[in-house]
Amino acid sequence: MGVDESSFIQSTLVRCVAPNETFNFEVGTPNGYSPVAIKGVSGEGNVLIKAS
């Protein structure tokens, strides 16, 4: 299963993150795909992403 404009998460996504990495959140709404990338995290923990 891949992620593209027709295959993505349409709900809240929580991921554990750590410093010095890039994290991709493949989210969107029924109106479209809205991917988010987070870089340069300071510290570690969970990040919650929800497209609206």
For this entry, give a set of tags:
52 residues; mainly beta; two-stranded antiparallel ribbon; 38% strand
Describe the protein in words.
This protein has strands at residues 13-17, 23-25, 28-29, 32-33, 36-38, 45-49. With 52 residues, it is mostly beta strands. The chain has one domain. The strands form 3 sheets. Strands 1-6 form a two-stranded antiparallel sheet. The chain has a two-stranded antiparallel sheet with strand order 2-5. It has a two-stranded antiparallel sheet with strand order 3-4. It is elongated. The protein starts with 12 loop residues before the first strand and ends with a strand. 4% of the residues are buried. The model has no long low-confidence stretch (mean pLDDT 78).
Task: Report a brief summary of the structure.
The protein is mostly beta strands.
Task: Please render the helix and strand layout as text.
Elements: E1 13-17, E2 23-25, E3 28-29, E4 32-33, E5 36-38, E6 45-49
Q: Number of folding domains?
A: 1
Strand order of the largest sheet: 1-6
Number of DSSP-assigned strands: 6
Order of helices and strands: EEEEEE
The radius of gyration computed from the alpha-carbon positions, rounded to a whole number of angstroms, is 12 Å
How many DSSP helices?
Answer: 0
Query: What structural class results from the helix and strand content?
Result: mainly beta
Give the N-terminus to C-terminus distance in angstroms.
23 Å
